[in-house]
């Protein structure tokens, strides 16, 4: 019973795999290459859009073939051994299948933004529409098809788990479990890389969108000697965002309360070591027909502001180093008209309170999320400082003073 | 036919904890109850008859990606509506709907993204009660709890369904389509005429 299930289930799975791997070349790539041979659609770079989909298809096709082959041989030989066959085939998962998928995943977000750019060309839209009419697409759109491999690879553990459920033999179950663990560890590794990349790309995007006003703009009262003006015209801190070690923990809009009951809409970025308070500005966009409207719609849905939405952020308060920050929750009885508020104190190296920022969130959920992130960030920085401090207190001091110079 | 216009296409993503019944719900809807328990669901496109008109639904399942946040987030791009699932026999799956899935889809697709809450495996409710398994029955999610959660997060609707017996399955997808139409004033009048006849 179990072995029959295994065979049927696996072959179902690999049929889906085959069907998927077979659409890409004949449906999109070959027609594209043919058209390009005739000198049309030359602006499309197939490798940018499809990444290593070619390799991916080959790899997963051959993997499925070996899987089926192994299974059919095992079923010829004896009643048993099917689990063994599967387990032995999955040995190649880490070395062969996973790397190809990983490359694909890491290229995917680039491919997506490249497709967004291509969509502005009517020729491209027409070509894609024509390709999507192929029955092999099953009416899925190009974007659905491009994300499919990433959905697909995570189904391998499901296949194995289903087989394990139907297996009674303890040793077979054990070896299946080991295989599942190994496949899952591959996927976790892949997830880690995708996560890192997503974060890195968001930070790289933000670096272009965040402006650091010059010292003159921030404090117009101080006198700047003429010879220093050109040097102080620009801030050199705009590269701090793209340090590969920095991660963006949280971001979002927040109301900054001011004394005269006027509050300012700000947009906060919490990185693992620093909190940035910025003002978001929308650049007037040139109006275009349908794509313009679609752009507006995505803005109104309040998801994260992106470069394509035409936004800019100007740093409007001194960046607050997380280790010099104290977070105070405003309790309802002390609120005094403040809604969903919390206070951030910026305390300098000498324990002098430098700045008090009172923020109000849109609702209590948003506030709690911010509080959690801010406290977690602080905890982690303290933890790190303790570790480093025990190693070498000197460097820690130097590091923070260096950071201070940068931010001041 | 107007129903074939590119705008009348709705991308629905089904999310929720592992083993809470997402895949079976989708398979039961797409294959009209002819799916087996272990089938794997691949993204697919179906025509959905709303009475006077037809809407094209593109359906996506995140099964297998529950532990891989960044990878599953790639599926959320351009999603029009979500079906957030929990298992009526496991209270923690509703907790995760509240603290994991809803915050996630909102932060990725905006606070106003339409969604519906769906309690899967509703048939277990009857079984547990019939067999006097009081201890397990205590863990059942009550409709009241879900109602509160739905109101707090602004769910378009909430259902209990049983994919095994095909109960309420159609309604789940009808509601999620309507939830999406609700956000599209331009399409709403056109596509819902037939619904209230």
Care to describe what's here?
The complex is a heterodimer of chains A (408) and B (197). Chain A is an alpha+beta fold and 408 residues long. Helices cover 59% and strands 14% of the residues of chain A. Chain A folds into 3 domains: 2-207, Dbl Homology Domain, Chain A (Up-down Bundle), CATH 1.20.900; 212-242, no CATH class; 246-393, Pleckstrin-homology domain (PH domain)/Phosphotyrosine-binding domain (PTB) (PH-domain like, Roll). Chain A contains 14 helices and 9 strands. Chain A is globular. Chain A starts with a helix and ends with a helix. Chain B is α/β, with parallel strands linked by helices. Chain B has a single domain (3-191), classed as 3-Layer(aba) Sandwich (Rossmann fold). Chain B has a 6-stranded mixed beta sheet with strand order 2-3-1-4-5-6, sandwiched between helices. In chain B, helix 3 links the parallel strand 4 and strand 5. In chain B, helix 7 crosses helix 8. Chain B is globular, with a radius of gyration of 16 Å. The chains are: A alpha+beta (408), B alpha/beta (197). The A-B interface holds A 5, 9, 12-13, 16, 20, 105, 108-109, 112, 138-141, 143-144, 147-148, 150-152, 154-159, 162, 165, 184, 187-188, 190-191, 194-195, 198, 300-304, 365, 369 and B 38-40, 42-45, 56, 58, 60-65, 67-75, 77-78, 103, 107-113.
